[in-house]
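User: Reviewer 2 asked us to show a designed sequence for the structure in our supplementary figure. I'm pasting the structure tokens here. Could you produce the per-position amino acids so we can include them in the response letter?
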């Protein structure tokens, strides 16, 4: 297994690049798996029709579109590095911006809700980004972040899983993504910047599952597998082995826990943030 292609050091050219022809379908499977939980979180905090919302890392756009419907008298701004899947949204109160959120300059106190799912884990400076997103909230506004806490590859009892996800950990590290430790820290990070009424929802995701997560996991394995083979970190047999294992009726392995956390801005943020 040798390759002269270097590992990506950013999201856009990494394993989940939108240049991959399968990425739109993978994002649709992600939405089918995750949207119900995100809706539950939003209903827990209680959306109001006139809210102004910011969606960070909008992906294929299901949550931005849903928010625009829920906040029909308000508005939604959706940002993503790459907005190629977002062109057809058909809502007057929804605007898209192609940009790196780390360079986004917005007035303080602009939004009632800032939401981001499966995106902060990919930002190298995610703690600083929590503080910036908090400044963009109006007093009383909510910051909601959902990210995965992936099981360390070495903890699996299944050798093909250890091999595949060990290689993937190397790839994530090269592009500055934190898929293992960050999610556990989100509630504490929200509290650190002065947010209050912190809430948490967690969901365990299991390889071998035959439902929405299983379908997403297979799409992830194919796409990430192709990427890892192309960088010489795995061979085709390694990828085939893990995909075959996921189809084995006797196989099961917890892959991740998704942590959704939210907090409300009750006053100005501490000066050190
Ligand atoms: C795993 S996808 C999740 C998409 C969507 N949030 C969802 O859950 O359905 C991560 C998204 O974040 C975007 N993204 C990654 N880094 C970003 C950055 N620095 N600024 C803006 N968007 C970013 C990617 O382009 C991608 O669309």
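Assistant: Here is a per-position design you can include in the supplement:
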């Amino acid at each position: 297994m040798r390759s002269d292609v270097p590992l990506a050091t950013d999201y856009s050219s990494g394993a989940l690049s939108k240049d991959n022809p399968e990425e739109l379908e993978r994002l649709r499977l992600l939405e089918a798996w995750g949207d119900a939980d995100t809706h539950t979180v939003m209903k827990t905090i209680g959306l109001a029709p006139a809210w102004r919302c910011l969606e960070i890392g909008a992906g294929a756009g299901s949550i931005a579109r849903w928010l625009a419907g829920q906040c029909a008298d308000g508005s939604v701004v959706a940002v993503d590095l790459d907005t190629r899947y977002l062109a057809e949204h058909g809502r007057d109160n929804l605007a898209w911006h192609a940009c790196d959120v780390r360079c986004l300059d917005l007035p303080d106190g602009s939004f009632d809700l800032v939401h981001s799912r499966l995106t902060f884990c990919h930002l190298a400076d995610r703690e600083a980004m929590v503080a910036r997103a908090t400044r963009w909230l109006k007093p009383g506004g909510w910051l909601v972040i959902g990210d995965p806490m992936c099981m360390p590859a070495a903890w699996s009892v299944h050798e093909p899983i250890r091999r595949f996800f060990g290689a993937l950990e190397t790839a994530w590290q090269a592009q500055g993504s934190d898929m293992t430790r960050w999610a556990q820290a989100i509630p504490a990070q929200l509290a650190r910047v002065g947010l209050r009424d912190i809430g948490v929802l967690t969901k365990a995701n299991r390889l071998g599952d035959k439902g929405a997560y299983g379908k997403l996991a297979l799409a992830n394995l194919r796409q990430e597998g192709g990427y890892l083979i192309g960088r010489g970190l795995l061979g085709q047999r390694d990828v085939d082995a893990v995909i075959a294992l996921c189809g084995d009726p006797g196989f099961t392995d917890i892959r991740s826990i998704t942590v959704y956390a939210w907090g409300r801005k009750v006053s100005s943020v501490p000066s050190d943030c």
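For the response letter, you might also mention the following. The chain has one domain: 23-265. The mean pLDDT is 95.
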